[in-house]
């Protein structure tokens, strides 16, 4: 296990959700065009690995089991590059709609696939579409998953996931018990998908297609604030290969990495942060 350096300026976790076609399967959009959008993720992953490898930047990939089985050679490249591989469902299932047996099957199947790919069991999880339930949390604990990255209760400080929260209409929120599951929070404000991806739904439109430099300007200011006002902060930035992997966006990513190099931040795999949290390190102190 790599030692996470002490760095008051903070730590950036770059994570990539390599969904492949499973994202579109979950939406029941399996005609050739949406599936091809998922296919592009496999084109983009080698580009991303080359870019990060040239800068010696560690990262974490969250990969559905379906993607591992569909693109074994590309996923092998991720593992061989030294990236952490975390859980992301089997076929990008929407957890709130799953029965316990179905969710357990997807988790166990995906654990087996990642273990077969990397030689060790995964320790991290990101819920497909960023949505989990108390049932999900209990299953993660049952299978010794160390951390989750699906919640938004903080921006720069890891915390413990609760179960059993209650929200009665006529009383204050009643918080449930903390668990041993560490949360490494994310936010849609630090996620490329909502800025850049154009998606039509039955009742809504996600316009996307914004200038990536505008997106990265927001990312940069979040991290500048962390460096200025937070000690040992952890900022989790989320990308999707099928989104960030096109030429002009990769060039913008390169420029952003150049900017980050001037701030003195450290890059870290998410499992290394989680291990440090479990060992008692304090992060995100304002």
Mean pLDDT: 96
* CATH architecture classification name: Alpha-Beta Barrel
Major beta-sheet overview: 5 strands, parallel
Can you identify the CATH class? Answer: Alpha Beta
Number of strands: 11
Counted up, domains total 1
Alpha plus pi helix count: 11
Series of secondary-structure elements, N-terminal to C-terminal: EHHEHHEHEHEEEHEEHEHHEH
Instruction: List the uncertain runs.
Output: none
Terminal Cα span: 28 Å
Shape: globular
Describe the structure.
- The two termini are 28 Å apart.
- The model has no long low-confidence stretch (mean pLDDT 96).
- The chain has helices spanning 22-26, 32-53, 65-70, 72-80, 100-118, 134-142, 192-196, 212-229, 241-244, 247-261, 270-278, and strands at 11-17, 60-63, 84-87, 124-125, 147-148, 159-163, 177-183, 199-200, 205-206, 234-239, 266-267.
- The protein has 286 residues and is α/β, with parallel strands linked by helices.
- Helix 6 links the parallel strand 4 (124-125) and strand 5 (147-148).
- It is globular and about 50 Å long.
- Helix 5 crosses helix 6 and helix 8 runs parallel beside helix 10.
- Strands 1, 2, 3, 10 and 11 form a five-stranded parallel sheet that branches. A four-stranded mixed sheet has the order 4-5-7-6, sandwiched between helices.
- The chain has a single domain, classed as Glycoside hydrolase/deacetylase (TIM Barrel).
